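Lab meeting minutes (informal)
Scribe: AK
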Amino acid sequence: MMRRSPLEYNSSMITIAPLRPDQIADAKSVISAVAQRIFEPDKTADEFSTALDEEHELRDVDDFEQIYAGDRGLFLAVMEDGRLVGTGAIKPLTAEAAELKRLWLLEEYHGQGIGYQVVMRLFEFARRAGYNRVCLQTSLMQVRAIAFYKRIGFVEVPDYHESPYDDDISLEIHLNP
């Protein structure tokens, strides 16, 4: 029997494992596709993706090996039969807090527990890395995501850093030892 890394998750068709450099374009494509439907539904996917590139909104994905690397950060890819369908990441915020970033899943995969599995893998990593809490910021337009975060135990907190957007909400969860 083959042993899996504790950071990997396999269901019948879904695999969750660390992002590889050759998956960057696909990760950005998934993030852009989901975000476009939420934030700019009147734009085409190509127009929205171009705008994200011009504004360098996904620069952290391009540089994921530096930003999310080492023993203090992790960027995960959700795969189905070789196709990237979701992402999720943890990066250092402070010595005791990590920031949850880039949790995106194509809409047809919502409601199947996949996002929950990604978050649980990231929490497991965060605990092992010595973090005692995880923070995140998201847009109030992300109604479904905010409900998900609150369902798994995140609570609203004052903004932990300035955002260029007026409609952001900050949330955090304390990790059990």
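Next up, CB showed the second protein from the same session:
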Amino acid sequence: MVGKLVGLGVAALVVIGGILFLMSISYQNKEIDLRNLMASQVQVIEANYDKMWKVLKQKAGITDKAKDAFKEMYVPLIEGRYSHGGGQMMQWLKEHNPQFDFSLFKDLMTSVEALRDEFFQEQKKLISMSKQHKDLLMKIPSRWFLGGIEHIEIKVISSTKTKQVMESGVEDDIDLFN
């Protein structure tokens, strides 16, 4: 009888030890997955930021070239038509003059908004991963198995103005055109 109890006790300890060992492996693997996922997401954010600025810079360059080309064409055209006098000054009322196409500016504005939103979404993913990692390190029972592992600090890309507002807790500048 004593032998059976000892055998059952040993078996129970082996089962409990096996469960704890498997839990340890599971939590360690989950932490490694999150750590690697966060590192990869930082690279995605960098690539996204690079793409965003290259697209916006090139679109802005095209818009500037179109503006300059229109100016180079329009100014001599108007000067040639109306510089001779002779009562032709009001001729512009009857004629159809070339119109500048503002659709390039609208396209640039749309791209700015879309690309900035895409960049924000990628940063949100990293913030969410960071929260999951922190939860894994802080919550029971996973923290029992991941005791010595430090949380990965992330950098949220932001502006100087936003950093100042977050530090001071005050945001009084609400005039967009100032």
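CB comment: Residues 29-155 form one domain.
No objections, moving on.
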